[in-house]
Specification:
Layout lengths: L4 H8 L4 E4 L14 E8 L3 E8 L6 H7 L5 E2 L3 H8 L8 H7 L5 E4 L7 E8 L2 E6 H8 L2 E3 L7
Parallel strand pairs: 3-5, 5-8
Antiparallel strand pairs: 1-7, 2-3, 2-4, 6-7
Pfam family, one: tRNA_edit
Protein name: Cys-tRNA(Pro)/Cys-tRNA(Cys) deacylase
Keywords: Lyase, Protein biosynthesis
């Protein structure tokens, strides 16, 4: 299968990764969890990107505070496509960083609990498994508590 732009970018940056397809491959998500990329719209910053564990809920108040917005929210899908170039379900922190390094990027602090994570590679059903240290060194996000507290 030909490499897409995210994989090519990682190759150019000499960053190790493993291609992963949800439909045909299985991994231990306890050891290598899946993180989803959320495109938010802040009232001050505009596009704001959050990377959070797949089965977690973003705390909008925390995200607003950390991103220096009064409020943030999930915008309409046409805004997401126009802003990132990726359709819903294929947003990737790597591809967004490649095309829009100016967008504020925030990773939930739980990412530090793992050595590797799965993130979208910018296409539906295509992801990459990448070391946390490499992902953070490449994108240089703010890492903070972004999740709803479980009570």
């Amino acid at each position: 299968m030909p490499k897409n732009e995210v994989e090519q970018f990682l190759d150019e940056e000499n960053i190790n990764y493993q291609s992963y397809k949800f439909s045909s491959e299985k991994i231990d998500t306890e050891e290598t969890p899946i993180f989803k990329t959320l495109v938010l719209k802040g009232n001050k910053t505009g596009p704001t990107i959050a990377l959070v564990p797949l089965n977690s809920r973003l705390d909008y108040k925390k995200a607003a505070s950390i991103s220096k917005n009064r409020k943030v929210g999930l915008p309409p899908m046409d805004y997401v496509m126009k802003t990132t170039g990726y359709p819903h379900g294929a947003n990737t922190p790597i591809g967004i960083y490649l095309h829009h390094p100016e967008y504020p990027m925030f990773f939930d602090q739980k990412i530090n609990n793992y050595q590797k994570v799965v993130v979208s590679a910018g296409e539906l059903d295509k992801s990459v498994i990448i070391a946390i240290n490499d992902l953070i060194a490449l994108i240089q996000p703010t890492v903070a508590d972004l999740l709803v507290d479980k009570s």
